[in-house]
Amino acid sequence: MADTSDFRNGLTFLWKDGIWEIVDFLHVKPGKGGAFVRTTLKNVKDGRELEETFRAGAKVEEVRVERRPHQFLYEDELGLHFMNTNTYEQFSLPADQVEGREYVKEGSEVDILFRYDTDEPLRTEIPQKVELEVTDTTPGVKGDTAQGGSKPATLESGATVDVPLFINEGDVVRVNTNTNEYETRVSTASGPTV
Question: What pTM did the predictor assign?
């Protein structure tokens, strides 16, 4: 058991029929009344966030989680199949349990959080920035880039993002998976950018 004096960012615990992780916290000691801790919590399984206040000294049951590196192998009707890059063990997860699925392509690396005592997979964590090839977009027309517009592009993983008009099919672009936004062109269809 842990109490509010043990609170720190990243602490995971059982609460309200789920496993929650502390994203942010603040100890508050008002002039009148008892002290309390204001927290921002994230549900480890589904990613929901909420604000919650705990009175000082409140106890919670700590849950140990372990982050393990995995490689995405393929997807079929059973879900997404992953291989642990340390032990080579394979298992599958339903597609709706894979956060950021639209940015995961075959061979890409992801971290999977497991509950240590039950070995239950809780959540996938994809890299914040991924580099993917553009497989479908309308061709840019010379002179169109003066206004700095954008157009939709489909990436090799199936995700669709808005890209600048000068991006063409075959170009490799870097995308921020947190904001779902294009960041830069990594290479062109004819070779790396200079």
Answer: 0.74
